[in-house]
Design goal:
The chain is an alpha/beta fold and 278 residues long. The protein has ten helices and seven strands.
Length: 278
Amino acid sequence: MNKQELMKTANEIRKGIVTAVHSAKSGHPGGSLSAADIYTYLYFEEMNIDPKDPKKPDRDRFVLSKGHTAPGLYSTLANRGYFPVEDLTTLRHTGSYLQGHPDMKHIPGVDMSSGSLGQGISAAVGMAIGGKMSGDGFRVYALLGDGEIQEGQVWEAAMLAGHRKLDNLVVIVDNNNLQIDGPITEVNSPYPIDKKFEAFNFHVINIDGNDFDQIDAAFKEARATKGMPTAIIAKTLKGKGVSFMENQVGWHGAAPNDEQYAAAMEDLRKAGEASCQK
C-alpha cells in the first residue's frame, strides 16, 4: 500500500472502532484510535499473515498487550478480511465472539488472549523464543500502553528479551500520555521510556506513531536490526481522528451516545475525503 491507501484504511479502521464502541455502549475508544495507524501498518504492510489461513505455522504473531483496546484490533482484523466488518456492531453483546478483550479461542486472527495488563509482552517473548528454538522465521509484535508499562512484569519480560537477543521481537509502546486516571506523568511516570528499554538491551526507535512515513521507516529499521530486540516508542494522540475525543482522558473508557457518534463519524468522513485529495 502507498501512504494515501494506508491513511484511507486507517480512517476506515477508526470508523469501525467508533461504531463498535457505540453499538456496545461500552469499551475503550481513546487508546484504540491512537494506535489505529500502527495497526494499519502492521496488518496491511508489515506482517506475514493470511486471513484465509489464520493459523498458518509461519505467520507473524501479534499480541495486544493492552487488551482493553480490542476495538482497534477487531476493526483492523475485520477490514483485513478475517471476519465481516458488520460483526463489529456485536462487540460485547451477549453471545458475540467479539468479547471485551481479545480471545484466541474464538476470534480469527487473534494470536493471544489478553487483557490483564503487563502480561502480553511475556507471551510475546515466549513466542519469539519459540520461533528461535524451532528455527521458524516468523516475527513477533507486541503493542503496549504507556500506562501499562508501569507494571513490573513488563520489565521482567524485557530483561529476558534482551538477554536472549530476540531480534525477531518488536515491542511498540503506544505513548499517548494518558491512562484511565489521567496523564501518565501524574499517575506514575515511566519516562524516559526509551532509556529504560535501552537499559534492557533493546534497540530503541522514537517516532510519531500517527505518521506513516515514520512508522514505515521504524519497522524497516527494526527488521534490519540483528542481535537484539527492538522497541518502537510511538508518540500518539489519544482519540486520534475524532476531534472531541482527542487528548481527552475521559474517552479512555467511555462510549459515545447517538449524537456524539454522529459527530465522530462526520469527523472521520471528512478525514477520509481529505486523505483522498492528498
